[in-house]
Amino acid sequence: METIGFSKHDHHACIEEGLAAVEATCRRDGLQFTPQRRRVLEILLQEHRAMGAYEILDKLRAEGMGAQPPVAYRALDFLVGNGFAHKIERLNAFIACAHPGARHKPAFLICRKCDSVAEASSDAALKAMTETVSDTGFQIDRMMIEALGICPNCAGAEAT
After folding, report:
1. Which domain holds residue 123?
2. pLDDT digits (tens, 9 = 90+) for 127-158
3. CATH for 146
4. In this structure, is residue 133 part of a structural domain?
5. Which of 38, 90, 107, 123 has the most beta carbons within 10 angstroms of its beta carbon?
6. What dihedral angle (degrees, nearest 10) is formed by the CA atoms of 52, 55, 59, 62?
């Protein structure tokens, strides 16, 4: 799985492909992709960064789609619960999944300067952690990998 988030890419195609993947998964799995859920995902895809629920709610309110927090939270619960978005615990914010419809356990690379977030594979880290705790009898229920650092764009700006 390629790391997505810091590199230059066709952002319009990224949005279209993300929406198409979610629509296809919803059709296949019989999930209701309501207009509110779709719009919240579009907002996350358009912004291409982690956003708080109230920031999303402000955008929905400005568009006349709903002014109550449950509107945003229900949509986010659906998106996260079905793997179409992820919650970034460190930021208490949400980001669209870079690989919607694919079963994966991502790691998040968070820029401490601009708050941009990239999604990467966590397979090696998960394997290492599982091996580390195997002798202890500890059973991992859930593990979030969030690395804080400086993205290539901010590092390049510092170098100039």
Report:
1. 104-160
2. 888 888 888 888 888 788 899 999 988 887 77
3. 3.30.1490.190
4. yes
5. 107
6. 150
